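[agent] plan:
  1. take the single chain provided in the ticket
  2. run structure prediction with default settings
  3. attach structure tokens to the ticket
  4. add a short note for the reviewer (M.T.)
[agent] executing step 1
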Amino acid sequence: MRAQKKSKSSKTSSHTGAAEETSSIPYPELVDGSSFVESAVKLTVTLAPIYSRDSMTGVYETLNSMLLHFVPQVRGVVLSYSKVKPLTDVALVFNDSPYGQLDIEANLLLWRPVSGMTLKGTINVQSPDHVGMLLWDTFNASIPASFIPKSKYEWRPFSDEEIAASTLQSKASTSSGSSDSDDSESEQPKTPTVPDITQSGSKYGSGEWVFKGTSQSVGANGDLEFMVVDVIRANDVLSVTGALL
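[agent] step 2 finished; step 3 output follows
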């Protein structure tokens, strides 16, 4: 009877530990909606004297310099602009400054991720410390190991045999692709089939994150869905820190 009681207590403790581990991840409140926003904005553009006779050329040059940069005035990364028009006929010059100030209106397409959104990225690196991703081949995202619930996922290192087999497969593919076109019609010896760790979408290092119990790779097709925990701004560049769901 004592042994059974002890086993039950151990099982309860295990479930409690898993719950505590998951609750320690700072999941924000879920936010619905897209990270892409179209916004009509009013901006004041500073024009150099060279644009005194052609102010709109200076306006477009300023807007072009904003593309793919985080602009605090609009609270997002500018992806494109349209419907640009001046709000006054002439630029204003103040005091002894040679630069003019022109108010404009424009429609901007912005990337504006916020904490709590669910995004999907393409995995480009996996390590015991984090999972790195690209969002739309443009923006960086990272999921630290501390934001990966260990009750659901675990790190699985690749075996030496898997790494060797993948290297052999890669070399065989490269050799086959570089053969002369004159020999394209000749019969080529078949390359023996070997396990390919790149097929799991985890060709990025010495191992991969997998689901506990099934050992299925996270993001088996190369893409991974996660929740935004923090948005980091470094100068005019945005990156995202996320947590696995």
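[agent] step 4 note for reviewer: The first helix runs from residue 2 to 23.
[agent] ticket updated
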